[in-house]
TrEMBL record:
PANTHER family: DYNEIN HEAVY CHAIN 1, AXONEMAL-LIKE PROTEIN (PTHR46961), DYNEIN HEAVY CHAIN 5, AXONEMAL (PTHR46961:SF19). Signal peptide: none annotated. This is Dynein heavy chain C-terminal domain-containing protein. Pfam families: Dynein_C. The lineage of its organism: Eukaryota, Metazoa, Ecdysozoa, Arthropoda, Crustacea. It comes from Meganyctiphanes norvegica.
């Protein structure tokens, strides 16, 4: 994949050894078909691992630092978070709002499921923050789970008890900001109708969202069967703020980031990454469904979508087709090109 390496034209063992000694001490990403930007990602991950190790071996006992202990710092943070936390949903009000929207419509059923999960998250966060404050004051016993929560919040990490009912995030600040933004999208949808463009990052179950959209399109066409309806997409040239109307069918989504490649907005095609740009914000993507069993264009790159930068089966959402320029789709497979719902 990289032209700088040539086949050896040697005859003796000594010549082979001398040839091997001309190799660089470390290989560049191009050797493996990756973009040079991949080296930046590697260095960032290495530095993060070192810093995480340093944090993990720090003493966890209370120590005075300019007059403030760990408990004082976390107590102040907990009180600030409790002030900013949105109220827990009132179930009968949610049911009434859903009835007005159409409770049996696929997208509204999906919204109800998302609201149920957000309610669980908000209840856990409210309760554990109150318990932690009581434990710091000495009113209740500091249990092992509360102690872990105290340590995590002091290190700006998401407590394990919160992560289990919500989502992964690199820092506590990013996680809490996302909580507020997710809640805001749900409240607007519930009270003012479905958004013109959906922030796909703000869902617990992105696969459920895409399935609900397919069900909705299937019901709009008599004789269509859900098993024969496949997802199709069109990458627009617009940003979320430029969308003022809903599509006749399907949905507009925004908030996706392209990793491993760049995006040519003018021509609507994949290009090489720009130097030092690790994540390319994508314009609004129009997702819809068609009733077909025919194959796809082999020149389209089937780009996987993941919830988070950790590309595991747990974070896999699905895939959409992207047009490519100058290269076959296999080139972008080697580049590791993927779409991420969130880069934090």
């Amino acid at each position: 994949f990289f032209e700088a390496y040539e086949m050896p034209a040697c005859k003796t063992q000594l010549e082979y050894l001398e040839f091997i000694n001309t190799f660089p001490a470390s290989d560049t990403p191009e050797v493996f078909g990756l973009h040079p930007n991949a080296n930046i990602t590697y260095q960032i991950n290495s530095a993060k691992d070192i810093l995480d190790t340093i944090l993990n071996i720090q003493p966890k006992e209370s120590a005075h630092l300019k007059g403030a202990t760990r408990e004082d710092i976390v107590s102040k943070l907990s009180k600030d978070m409790l002030k900013k936390l949105p109220p827990i949903y009132i179930q009968h009000e949610v049911r009434q709002a859903l009835q007005k929207l159409g409770a049996i419509l696929p997208m509204n059923i999906f919204l109800r499921q998302e609201l149920d999960q957000m309610t669980v998250t908000l209840k856990v966060v409210h309760q554990t923050l109150h318990d932690l404050l009581l434990a710091i004051e000495g009113t209740v016993i500091m249990s092992p789970s509360l102690k872990d929560m105290l340590d995590s919040m002091h290190d700006a990490k998401v407590p394990e008890i919160w992560r289990k009912v919500s989502w992964e995030s690199s820092t506590l600040g990013f996680w809490f900001t996302e909580l507020l933004e997710r809640n805001q999208q749900f409240v607007r949808w519930l009270n003012f109708g479905r958004p013109k463009s959906f922030w796909i990052t703000g869902f617990f179950n992105q696969q459920g969202f895409l399935t609900a959209m397919r069900q909705e399109v299937t019901r709009q066409h008599k004789g269509w069967a859900l098993d024969c309806v496949i997802l199709q997409n069109l990458v627009t040239k617009f940003n979320a703020e430029d969308i003022h109307e809903q599509p006749p069918e399907g949905v507009y989504v925004h908030g996706l980031f392209l990793e491993g490649g760049g995006w040519d907005r003018k021509n609507g095609k994949l290009t090489e990454s720009r130097p030092k740009i690790l994540y390319e914000p994508m314009p609004v993507v129009y997702l819809y469904a068609v009733n077909t069993t025919s194959g796809k264009d082999p020149m389209l790159y089937e780009c996987p979508i993941y919830r988070k930068p950790q590309r595991t089966d747990h974070n896999y959402v699905g895939s959409i087709d992207l047009e490519t320029s100058h290269y076959y789709p296999s080139h972008w497979t080697l580049r590791g090109v993927a779409l991420l719902c969130d880069i934090k």
